[in-house]
Amino acid sequence: MPLATNVWGGTPLGSAVWAATESDPNDPVWPKADWVPILELLLEAGANVDAVEYPTGNSRIDAILRRHRAERIRPETLPRGIVAEK
User: Fold this and answer.
1) Which pTM value belongs to this model?
2) What average pLDDT does the structure give for the chain?
3) Domain regions of the chain by residue span
4) Contact call for residues 52 and 13 (beta carbons, < 8 A)
């Protein structure tokens, strides 16, 4: 299945990371959102963690991306017969 993209070619995860790192909580135009649960939901639903730039400069978001990147390469998460590189 092809990835969903926005008009700029970005993925939902990339758009959420961009909004989380670029939004100004003091600007009334931006939604007042805690982006961390949104990012977690997208990643748990299968969003490609490698499709976003890392690090972002936001410690909370970087921690989520770091954890999901580490989980992606844990041996027990790989399909049978695939071995993680060391």
Assistant:
1) 0.73
2) 82
3) 12-77
4) yes
